[in-house]
Amino acid sequence: MARHIHLALLAGFLLLASCLHSAVIEPVKLFNGRNFEGWEGDTTHTWRIVEGTIVGGSLDKEVPHNNFLCTRKSYSDFVLKVKFKLSGTKGFINSGVQFHSKRATEPAYEMVGYQADLGDKFWASLYDESRRNKTLAAPDTALITKILKPNEWNDYEIHSQKGRIRLYLNGTMTVDYTEEDKSLPQSGIIGLQIHGGGSALVAFKDLVIREL
Predict the structure, then answer these.
(1) What is the pTM of this model?
(2) Residue 29 near residue 208, CB atoms below 8 Å
(3) Residue 189, SS3?
(4) Count of domains observed in the chain
(5) Range of 186's domain?
(6) CB count, 10 Å around CB of 120?
(7) Is 206 domain-assigned?
């Protein structure tokens, strides 16, 4: 009898473990490296695919205004990993990754929501785009100097879960922010930005998201 009970408990445990494993959402690629399937934006003038990477902006002429390439799907809690490279020749050299966001109605090229920021004085900080219009949290400049690889590929991570947002640059946490305003959406589309007002070029690759 004891042996049968033991086997029944073991079978139940294995079934539970199997169910828990199947409930875990595996990471998926947001960009297939070939086309803009799953994305929308100005893919005629601003955004293009170069050697398997998403590229936006120009080093030869000024980007006239902010421009975003966005996912068609919305996301809530997630871990997003992306590699980026940002360079520029003049003006405001800035980019970022929007999340829990939506397209603005006026001006139509803008977005509303959180931005994991990129660029001089804004590296790996958290900005509230077209809403509170301010930096919500930012790392120490000395830390950025230590971990940033200028004009090279860098690893960026966004962890967002139930109002807690953490940003990581090259494996080091730069922001740990908890949203106190419960009225603000904690879900929305993801957008890649090239900022207006400068001659700048940004490239993104290896975009992988794991929903929580």
Answers:
(1) 0.88
(2) yes
(3) strand
(4) 1
(5) 28-211
(6) 12
(7) yes
